[in-house]
Amino acid sequence: MAALAEPIRIAPQDEHEVEQASRVYRTLVREHAAALIGPSGERIELPPALLDVLLRVVEKMQEGQAVAVMPLMEELSTQAAADLLGVSRQFFVRECEAHKLPFHYTGTHRRVLLKDLLDYKKRRDQGRRQALVDIARQSEEIGEYDRFISPEESAPTPVVSTRQNGVKERILALVAEKTGYPKEMLDLDLDLEADLGIDANKQAEMFAAIGEIYNIPHDENRKPRDYPTLAHVIRFVYEQRPDLAGITRATR
């Protein structure tokens, strides 16, 4: 019987390595480039694919998390595959039996290739995002957006200035440009990465663009992951530029 894959595990050993990873991450986000320097001074620029891998690894390491690296053709048990997807083994086995992804038997045990699992996850995530688009369009057609009542309505009603509406619209336009989603479906509570597919690189680019638009100075300690939703991003602009908020409280 073939041995199952043993992933290469990369994890910070102590707080010093976490801090080092954090400095490397901030540099990569700022520079969007990296290179290897040999003993003789020879410089080798990292290609975009390797740079993306490095950025993803140090992003997790600076959070104190471990990262596993595996070849795409490695075999996984159904339990390992289910753990990677965050679902139960029973659910994953049903997906296999329904021919949602290829699998084979090693003896009496089901095995899946990592590349097939990742393809399945990509299709699943795309399906979930498309479902969000469909729900948003249906809600728009029946006027659900017009009937939405936010929890904040129990508080004193704010009078929102044209400038504040302008910030929201400009952020939504920027996100629509980067994702291809229509502005009408960009709910402010959507997660940038999980729901909209905006990865760490694109988030860094988006914050750089926002900084240029609103003249917000670059801060090496700022982490895009601290602003996971569109509402957080808009609030970030107001925190940095309170002059744009333009809110006055209406009297009752």
The CATH homologous superfamily of the largest domain is termed ACP-like
- End-to-end C-alpha gap: 75 Å
Task: Report low-confidence residues grouped into runs of 5 or more.
Answer: 145-162, 247-252
Helices and strands, in order, run as EHEEHEEHHEEHHEHHHE
Counted beta strands: 9
Average pLDDT across residues?
78
So how many helices? Answer: 9
- The assigned structural class equals mainly alpha
Number of domains: 3
- What is the helix content? 40-55%
Indicate the overall shape.
Answer: flat
- From the alpha carbons, calculate the radius of gyration and give it in angstroms: 23 Å
CATH architecture of the largest domain: Orthogonal Bundle
Summarize the biggest pleated sheet. 3 strands, antiparallel
From the structure provided, what is the oligomeric state, counting identical versus distinct chains? single chain
Strand content: 5-15%
CATH topology of the largest domain: Non-ribosomal Peptide Synthetase Peptidyl Carrier Protein, Chain A
Which CATH class of the largest domain is shown? Mainly Alpha
Name the strands of the widest sheet in spatial order: 5-7-6
